[in-house]
Inverse folding.
């Protein structure tokens, strides 16, 4: 680590470099203030002002000498929470970028992250999501940015993109960034299946640096994959600056936060391929989306994948083909850590032909099919099962992430006897749960899955309902649940997951014992009187008999 001192900004935004001199010189004059994003950089972080005349001659230093700088640092991050013009754009939670590069290796040495105050949530349920957003923005400032692709270096420290006499790559005016070489980014065309048996050309950009290619091929199990696809939608700030959402849905460096962000080996590989960092791959988080799905998944449209799976009578996951309806048909997120719903919906206008995927949908007229697609545009309108939130009068109440204790439903609305917490997962419900009390029977219209606590033991995976453990002897086993909670009888059926999805050790699968998972509680009549009340009533009756007999005798006489 060294001392970081930043160059001053220029009044004209034009600067020069002298041969064999790492410093940056302003044409005419330095600006009064130097900013990193919306933040004014403190004077003590700045180098002395260096200027040349309008012809680039008579270069000199003026003003105060170099300040102290930041010692023992490799990178300075300026963090702010300012209401800026960009914060006024729809759904912008935070944004970040690099500010300055060091001279020898073009590595970012300063960057900023601005959190939009009106979008910062203090809800405990949203803390994990907010934290992942901050991490996401820091990764942009450190290297995952279209503005930095042209500055990447190979393992020997050589630039992957050619430099001109001024030490910089060619500037691409239309994109507003320095133009990268095909050692970093390449264009490709995919054959794209859409409705009515049409095949269209689908233009994409691939990041093709060595480690990224290696990790992408391993993740998808596709040995001839050329690179990892970059986002092709979302406009400035999203397009080319993130992984393609369709292929890496909940990877942290996709262009929107839909659920459960994870920083995978593919993102760490990109950071290594910048030529600026050493990576500890043991810190990578497991990404389930697309894992082992093969070349058809990663190189063809989601329509092709869905149709192939349907023909083989296999699940279409991670995509889905169930219309979003009211009541909701609930399912589980792919990793079974949250309740989810298929985001297939109808749009007011027909989607572009490139994103029309359905030849038929149950209950939909053929003329309306071009209007249907997944709700997330940057996932190429491919539908998938998505985590969601409950709101009341527009106010956030809770999310559907099973691991967050604060998402626990109100006891008198907990129809499925659910339990949220760090040891909970999403299970499919075979039938709608019923809450029964006296002659009352209630069921929730939105059903299909719920959150339940599980544990692992030498016997396998157990599902806990209240204080009762239901052992899963094999994947797909039906658990019959009948249990009393808060004065109500809850009845329903759950489907066991695969033990190895959640436990490190699992015994061989087998049929459950004949007595297993039957009703675990004595038959309960929630309308019956308590024993003490019955005794009290009998004592009252015994004492009333003599009075009643005396009254009748008097009346008779």
């Amino acid at each position: 680590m060294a001392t970081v001192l930043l160059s001053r900004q220029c009044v004209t935004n034009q600067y020069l470099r002298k041969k064999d001199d790492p410093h940056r010189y302003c044409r005419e004059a330095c600006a009064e203030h130097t900013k990193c994003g919306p933040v004014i950089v403190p004077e003590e972080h700045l180098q002395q002002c260096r200027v040349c005349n309008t012809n680039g001659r008579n270069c000199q230093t003026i003003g105060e000498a170099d300040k102290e700088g930041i010692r023992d640092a490799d990178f300075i991050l300026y963090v702010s929470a300012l209401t800026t013009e960009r914060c006024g754009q729809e759904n912008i939670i935070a944004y970040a970028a690099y500010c300055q590069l060091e001279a020898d290796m073009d590595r970012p040495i300063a960057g900023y992250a601005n959190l939009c105050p009106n979008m910062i949530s203090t809800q405990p349920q949203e803390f994990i999501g907010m934290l992942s957003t901050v991490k996401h923005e820091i990764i942009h400032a450190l290297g995952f940015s279209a503005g930095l692709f042209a500055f990447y270096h190979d393992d020997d420290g050589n630039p992957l993109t050619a430099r001109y006499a001024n030490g910089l790559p060619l500037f691409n005016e239309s994109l507003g960034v320095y133009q990268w070489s095909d050692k970093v980014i390449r264009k490709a065309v995919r054959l794209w299946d859409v409705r009515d048996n049409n095949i269209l050309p689908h233009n994409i950009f691939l990041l093709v640096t060595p480690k990224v290619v290696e990790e992408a091929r391993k993740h998808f199990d596709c040995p001839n994959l050329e690179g990892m696809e970059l986002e092709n939608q979302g406009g400035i700030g999203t397009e080319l600056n993130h992984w393609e959402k369709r292929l890496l849905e909940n990877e942290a460096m996709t262009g929107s936060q839909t659920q459960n962000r994870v920083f995978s080996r593919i993102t760490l590989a990109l950071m290594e391929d910048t030529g600026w960092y050493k990576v500890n791959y043991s810190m990578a988080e497991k990404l389930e989306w697309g894992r082992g799905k093969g070349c058809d998944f990663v190189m063809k449209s989601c329509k092709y994948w869905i149709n192939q799976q349907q023909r083989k009578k296999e699940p279409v996951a991670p995509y889905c083909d169930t219309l979003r309806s009211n009541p909701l048909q609930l399912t589980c997120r792919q990793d079974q850590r949250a309740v989810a719903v298929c985001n297939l919906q109808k749009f007011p206008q027909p989607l572009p032909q490139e994103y029309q995927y359905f030849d038929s949908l149950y209950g939909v007229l053929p003329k309306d099919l071009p209007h249907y697609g997944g709700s997330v545009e940057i996932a190429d309108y491919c539908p998938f099962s998505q985590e969601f939130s409950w709101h009341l009068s527009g106010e956030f109440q809770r999310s559907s992430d099973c691991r967050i204790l604060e998402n626990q439903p109100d006891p008198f609305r907990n129809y499925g006897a659910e339990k949220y917490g760090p040891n909970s997962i999403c299970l499919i419900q075979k039938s709608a749960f019923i809450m029964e009390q006296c002659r009352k029977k209630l069921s929730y219209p939105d059903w299909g899955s719920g959150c339940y606590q599980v544990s692992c033991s030498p016997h396998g995976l157990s599902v806990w309902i209240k204080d009762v453990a239901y052992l899963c002897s094999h994947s797909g086993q039906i658990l019959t649940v009948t249990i009393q909670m808060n004065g109500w009888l809850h009845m329903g059926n759950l489907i066991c997951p695969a033990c190895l999805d959640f436990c490190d050790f699992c015994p061989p699968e087998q049929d459950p014992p004949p007595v297993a998972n039957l009703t675990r509680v004595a038959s309960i009549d929630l309308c019956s009187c308590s024993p003490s009340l019955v005794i009290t009533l009998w004592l009252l009756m015994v004492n009333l008999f003599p009075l009643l007999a005396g009254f009748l005798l008097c009346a008779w006489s």
In short: Residues 531-556 form the longest helix (26 residues). Residues 516-523, 529-542, 547-557 have pLDDT under 50 and may be disordered. Residues 402-501 form one domain.
